[in-house]
């Protein structure tokens, strides 16, 4: 099968980038399984295992499709719908009640359900990008992983939980002096801001962490930070919003929207088994599992099926920007 993967950003990425890493892992895995993959992505992209063409919005999309493609896998909107069989993965949230295409795929069951759909594929990571999880390393701190400038990620809440529990916290994805969301100064020396990290730098931080503190204030569509952390044996302490309840089982983490309950849970982090966390990701959230699930979707579409009987539409507009975070 020849799959064309389309997105409007550049690949690969070295630090921050969710969709970009997902489509890279997916394409690499499909090639390893014997399929041909081409990318149609932003200028500056390159790839050593697949052909790369540059997406140009000034040219009709169908004129940009390479010869021999069997199915188009969109990850962004394009200027016209493909004439070939296609699907589109919806990676993010929307608070507008617009209709999505019938061949839309969401990234978690909860994400799909919120749009009246049952069509989803969980994201999966490539273990080769992470290497040895260091399960026997001495762990001395907790970590937060995400774009700290994005208020729904709630780095303030993560800092408060760590401080109340009297644990050091490493913040991957944030800086100490933040002016983007109003002035935020954090002087506590137990709170270390690592900035945007990727590759070996990020892996090393995770491999010495006791767990992920992830008190998001929105319905998380999926959360690559969750499965990255679990890969390194880090249990997840988070709010129960969006995909979190379906991803974070009770043996690999604890969910609550109460600061007090999350504080008490991280004090008891030793009850979680690092090996269980790691093996859970390898079984459920690898790029191999993701690719197999997408291949099922591709085959259905190539056999004239549709992923949704009706166009997915947001079922309920969220009135409050931030979901509750209790004392």
Structural class: alpha/beta
CATH superfamily of the largest domain: Glycogen Phosphorylase B
CATH topology of the largest domain: Rossmann fold
CATH class of the largest domain: Alpha Beta
Distance between the termini: 53 Å
Q: How many discrete structural domains? A: 2
Give a short account of the largest sheet.
6 strands, parallel
Overall spatial form: globular
Report the sheet-strand fraction: 15-25%
Order of helices and strands: EHEEEEEHEHEEEEHEHEHEHHH
Question: Briefly, what is this?
Answer:
Helix content is 27%, strand content 17%. It is an alpha/beta fold and 327 residues long.
Folded structure, characterized:
There is one protein chain. The protein is α/β, with parallel strands linked by helices and 327 residues long. The protein has 2 domains: 2-125 and 290-302, Glycogen Phosphorylase B (Rossmann fold); 128-283, 3-Layer(aba) Sandwich (Rossmann fold). The protein has 9 helices and 14 strands. The chain has a 6-stranded parallel β-sheet, covered by helices on one side. Strand 13, helix 6 and strand 14 form a beta-alpha-beta unit. Helix 1 packs across helix 9 (287-302). The N and C termini lie far apart (53 Å).
